[in-house]
Structures are given as C-alpha cells and as structure tokens.
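Hello,

Our lab assistant flagged a job as stuck in the queue for most of the afternoon. It eventually completed. Since we weren't sure the result was trustworthy after the delay, we are filing this so someone can double-check. Below is the sequence as submitted and the structure that was eventually returned. Let us know if re-running is recommended.
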Amino acid sequence: MPRTSLATTILSFLVFVISTAGARTTPAQQAGVAVGPQYGTTHVYIAPADFDAFVASVEATLGGQASKRVTTNVLPVPSSEEFQYVSTPVGALSIFAFETPIPFPFGTERTGYLVTDLDAAVKQARAAGAEVIVEPFKDAIGRDAVIQWPGGIRMQLYWHSAPTTNPPLETIPDNRVYVSRDVADDYVARFVRFAHGKVVADDANADAGEIGRPGETYRRIRITSLFGNMQVLVTDGHLPYPFGHEMTGYEIADLAATLTKAKAAGVRVLSPPYAANDRTTSIVQFPGGYIAELHTLSATEHDTKKQ
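-- returned structure --
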C-alpha cells in the first residue's frame, strides 16, 4: 500500500475512534443508581418527648420493628439528635428527634433514597435538572446529599460504606408529591429521567375525592422505578386539611382492621375512608404529628398488580 494511502487510512480510523468514543455510553453511565424500594425511607422529624409513643404507634399500626435508638450527629454541621430506623412490611421510616435547633435545610426533605454511588447519583440528578442544595457530606456510616426538583420537592440521597440488606417489602408505598400544573410535566420528566422510571398512569380526570374534594376531578400521575412508587398529585392548591401534609401512602391489606389497631395505639383518623375507583383511602396522624395516607386496593386492582 502506498505510504499516502496508509496514512489516510490510519487518519480515518483515528477520526472514527475519537468521534465514536465521545458518543458511547458505558454500562455504568446507562445504569440507574437506585438499589431497591425497601431502602427508601420517609424522614420523620418529631419532638424527643413524642419518640416512644410514635414508634409504638407505627409498630402497632404497620407492623415491623425498630432499630436501636442512638444519639448522634447525622449532619455536616454541629447538631445532636436521637435517631431510630423503623422497618415495616409496607415501608421504612427514619426518625429524627433533635436536641439542638435543626440546621437549614434539614427537616424539609421528604424521603431518603439509597444509591449505589453517591457521586454518580448527584451527577445524574444534576443532569436531569435537580438542584443540589446540600453537597455530599460524610456521616457515621456513609455519605449523603440533598437535592431539590422543580416544584420544591426535596429528597436525600444516601450511600452506605458497608453493604445493607433489607428484606423485600410486602407492598411498596407511594411517595405522594403535590405539585402545581405549572411544573407537573417538567417535574415528572426530570424525575423519571433520573430514576430510570416509567409513567404507568396519567389520569387527567381522577376522582378528587381522594384529596378531599368529592364530585370533582384532578390530574394524578403514577410513576414506578427501582426507588419505589410515586403519585404526583397535580392540584390548584385548594386543598382541604389534611391533604398535602401527608408524604407517604401505605398499601395495607385491610383498611378497616388497620384503622382499628391504629386508633387503639393513639393514631387519629383525620380523613375517614373514601372509596375511589381503585382503592379505599384514609388520612391519619400518628402521635408526634406525622401524617400519612393508608389505602387498600380494590379486588380488581389487587388482582391486576399480581399478574
């Protein structure tokens, strides 16, 4: 082969390699950072005096068991708080009772999601349009960061230095996110991109009795991902109390029986059971102030999920 032809061939090959290398995405880049829905926790902030009653009421209502309670500092700045983790068959809770003032912006994040790589998670969240409002920091067992999505939705991402093994959940709870119509589509698109999730339902005429306004309709979007389930509730902000205060919805087998156990444990029923199209739902408040949604799926919906 003439030298000029050989040089041209080599140059063309190098140009091809360089141009395609930049376009390639490695398997690590393609993969999401979620670990599993059993590692997602609702963050609950309560007064120290309410700790015992709150934990006892959660265990009586939802089942499960609590970890050992410790006094520590889980933040990147000086603080002191009691911390306890409660694992139930229908979702986990991370409970914080501060003995010092709560540093901003902590206390405003709704959930904690375990990730495989915190730096990769932060990078992917930023690429999807999230704002990192607390840069990564170390705690006693790993690293954490707090992000914010359009609509002001705040979440904590966390990584453990030692592997964690939680049993699978019996049912996966709903992260209940209330947003305005101005940001709904933007929020959903960005979160789905980050979570490698999927919109499984987008109902523009859902029964607004689910949010305390029977006889009306609203838009409800349902998302699934390896982080867990999410319900995006798109409203005009005209919400009767207590709707909008609940962060998590727990799927249980028998709502009536669960409410009976809950009331015996000091839980208040703020919104009585309401039968919607695919579920019966109620809003409750646990000792210490934590507000949650409880629901039982209709027989048809339950059979559909099992298929």
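-- support follow-up --
The delay was a queue issue, not a problem with the job. The result is valid. DSSP finds seven helices and 17 strands in the chain. Residues 174-306 form a domain with the 2,3-Dihydroxybiphenyl 1,2-Dioxygenase; domain 1 fold (CATH 3.10.180.10).
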